[in-house]
Amino acid sequence: MAVLKQLVKVASKKKLVGDYWQLALEFPDRFDFLAGQYVSLKVDEAGIRRSYSIASKPNGKMIDLLVNVGPMGVGSRYVLGLKEGDGVEVLAPVGKFVVDESKMMNGKNKLFIATGSGIAPFRSMVMDLLTRGFKDQIRLV
Q: Whole-structure pTM over 0.85, yes or no?
């Protein structure tokens, strides 16, 4: 998959708990990515970018990001300032932290361990595996 620069739209932004926000982005066309990949958002006019793992399963034009705004850096302030309908420049899809299907489809139970916003790529992976009919036990801790 080629990494493309695209302008996407903020479909929704929702406070979850504490410093965590869910940001839903809508692509103009179908967006193909592998569970575990991330997007890089342009967060200021100087071209500074911040990367956020995709927390949703691959399924069309929409993706969800889980953002920890606790650090209150340039990325945090940018995300907090976004409103529904705003345009966002992204580079996507990026990353190789994806499920190796040859190792997943082996009849063994799976364990994913994460903390904080680090859960995002694992959420994407688990949702994708379940959608594709994965039958082994999966634990997300």
A: yes
CB contact set of 94 (below 8 Å; sequence gap of 6+)? 3, 37, 38, 39, 40, 51
CATH of the domain spanning 4-94: 2.40.30.10
Q: How far apart are CA 81 and CA 29, in angstroms?
A: 25
Q: What is the pLDDT of residues 43-53, one digit of tens each?
A: 999 999 999 99
Q: Which two tokens stand for residue 29?
A: 């066309």
Report the distance separating Cα 19 and Cα 14, nearest Å. Answer: 11
Contact 56, 63 (CB under 8 A): yes
The C-alpha angle 96, 101, 106, rounded to 5 degrees, equals: 140
Contacts of 39 by beta carbon, 8 Å cutoff, 6+ apart: 25, 51, 52, 54, 63, 65, 90, 91, 92, 93, 94
Domain-wise residue ranges, the chain: 4-94, 101-140
φ/ψ (deg, to 5) at 102: -65, -25
